[in-house]
Design brief:
231 residues, alpha/beta, Rossmann fold, seven-stranded mixed sheet
Length: 231
C-alpha cells in the first residue's frame, strides 16, 4: 500500500460512524509485521486509529502468519460462505483485484460479505508497474470501472490519487537496497523471469497513481443480481 493511499483510506474510514463499520474485514492483509514495520503507514493511518475507536478488525490473507486472523482462498465458495456468517459491517480490500483471474467473481463474493447499508473500501493501482503476487493481470481501472464490478453497490466516493514516485519508496541504505534487489532477482528467476524487477526501474521517477473508492451495499429493493455462484 502506498502512503497517500493509506492516508486516503484512513480519512474515508474516519468519516464513517464506528458502529457502521465494526466489525471490519481486511482482505489481503499480509502480516502484522508488514503492516507495522515494512509499510508502517498502514498501521499509523488505518489500523491504529480504528483500534482507538474500538472498531473490531479481522485480517484475512491466503497465507498464514503473525497478525493474520483468518486465512483462506476467496475462490473457495465454502470458505466465503463461512465468512458470511461472521457479521461484518464493512470490508477493506486494497491492491488485490489486479492479482486475480476472475475479478468479477471475487468482487461479487466480497460484496456479499457485507449487509445492505454496509461499506466496502476498494483500491487498485491505476498507474503502477508490473508486480506479480503471484500474478499481475495489469488490471488498472478507473474508480468508475471498480464500482462497475460491484453491481449491488452504489458509489459513495472515488478518486485517483497521486502517490509519489518509485524513488520515494526505495530504501536508501546501501546494504538493504542490495539485499532487496538480490531477493527480487532470485524470486523472479524462480518464477521464470525477472520482469517484476526490471519493470520497476522506469518508474523510479514516474508518478504512481491509485484508484480508490468507497461503496455502499444497496438495500434489497435496489439490489442488482451480482451473479455470485455458491460452492
Amino acid at each position: 500500500m502506498l502512503k497517500a493511499e493509506a492516508q486516503w483510506v484512513g480519512r474515508s474510514l474516519r468519516q464513517l460512524p464506528s458502529d457502521a463499520i465494526s466489525p471490519l474485514l481486511n482482505v489481503g492483509s499480509s502480516t502484522g509485521e508488514f503492516r507495522r514495520t515494512v509499510q508502517p503507514w498502514i498501521a499509523q493511518e488505518i489500523f491504529n486509529p480504528l483500534a482507538e475507536r474500538g472498531v473490531a478488525v479481522d485480517h484475512l490473507d491466503v497465507k498464514e502468519g503473525e497478525g493474520i486472523d483468518l486465512h483462506g482462498d476467496l475462490m473457495d465458495g465454502s470458505f466465503v460462505n463461512g465468512l458470511s456468517t461472521r457479521g461484518y459491517r464493512s470490508l477493506l480490500c486494497c491492491n488485490l483485484l489486479e492479482h486475480v483471474h476472475d475479478r468479477s467473481l471475487i468482487s461479487a463474493r466480497l460484496e456479499c460479505l457485507v449487509p445492505a447499508g454496509g461499506y466496502l473500501i476498494i483500491t487498485v493501482p491505476r498507474e503502477f508497474p508490473f508486480h506479480a503476487d503471484p500474478i499481475d493481470t495489469m488490471f488498472r481501472p478507473s474508480p468508475e470501472e471498480i464500482a462497475h464490478l460491484f453491481q449491488g453497490c452504489r458509489l459513495v466516493g472515488g478518486e485517483i490519487l497521486d502517490c509519489g514516485q518509485g524513488w520515494d519508496y526505495v530504501d536508501r541504505n546501501p546494504l538493504r537496497l542490495l539485499s532487496n534487489v538480490t531477493r527480487r532477482l532470485l524470486a523472479r528467476k524462480e518464477g521464470g523471469g525477472i520482469k517484476g524487477t526490471t519493470s520497476f526501474a522506469p518508474w523510479l521517477f514516474r508518478t504512481f497513481r491509485q484508484s480508490c473508492v468507497v461503496l455502499q451495499r444497496c438495500g434489497s429493493q435496489d439490489y442488482v443480481d451480482s451473479g455470485m455462484t455458491e460452492g
